[in-house]
Design a protein that fits this description.
The protein is α/β, with parallel strands linked by helices. Helix content is 39%, strand content 16%. It has a single domain (2-175), classed as Flavodoxin domain (Rossmann fold). Helix 1 packs across helix 7 (153-175). The structure holds flavin mononucleotide. Flavin mononucleotide is lined by residues 8, 14-17, 64-68, 105-108, 148.
């Protein structure tokens, strides 16, 4: 099962992420959990989130980049859900052997994130990657959709189809 943890603070105003979700929402074996719609008061149901994660083989962390990081509810989700004794520490093995795909959209173009200009994706992804590895998750090469402010609809749709293909490729490899 592919579980998409979707953290968009204003899902109804989304252009890029909405198109990505539109591409994959009808795929078999894909479940989407929209954190801001589930938890508008930031009161996360930890047990429900852990139960969903336990069912997943591939976890997708999907969100718009905000100040070179994640939206705040996503950070809170990790803080609350990846608890000691469950995700890490003594007997904390719930996530071991699963994979994680960081799927992020950005306003900046690809060149904006090249080393020498601003920190590159390999730098920006480090807190998430380190979190994943610490909990025994297999970190896959991230999926990034850049230039979302200036892209026309056709370009956004094409990139959203690439996202769908990433999930289909994973399913094919995983299911043999
Ligand atoms: C508060 C805030 C902070 C943002 N910070 C960044 C940033 O650091 N780098 C970047 O490239 N884009 C940044 N953006 C732009 C968003 O990443 C962009 O609007 C989003 O990825 C577009 O996806 P959507 O159409 O699904 O909303 C920011 C947007 C907001 C609202």
């Amino acid at each position: 099962m592919i579980l998409i943890i979707y953290a968009h603070p204003y899902p109804r105003h989304s252009h890029a992420n909405k198109r990505m979700l539109d591409q994959v929402k009808t795929l078999e074996g894909v479940e989407i959990r929209s954190l801001y719609e589930r938890y508008p008061d930031f009161n996360i149901d930890i047990a429900a989130e852990q139960e969903a994660l336990a069912r997943a083989d591939l976890i997708v962390w999907q969100h718009p980049m905000q100040w070179y990081s994640t939206p705040p509810l996503f950070k809170l989700w990790i803080d609350k859900v990846f608890s000691h004794g469950w995700a890490y520490g003594h007997n904390g093995k719930a996530l071991q052997g699963k994979s994680v795909l960081w799927a992020v959209t950005t306003g900046g173009g690809e060149s904006h994130f090249q080393i020498g200009s601003h920190p590159g994706f390999d730098v920006l992804s480090q807190p998430l990657q380190a979190t994943a590895l610490y909990c025994g998750l297999d970190w896959l090469p991230p999926f990034a959709m850049h230039c979302t402010f200036v892209c026309d609809d056709e370009t956004l749709q094409a990139q959203a189809r690439h996202f769908k293909q990433r999930l289909l490729d994973w399913q094919e490899t995983h299911n043999g």
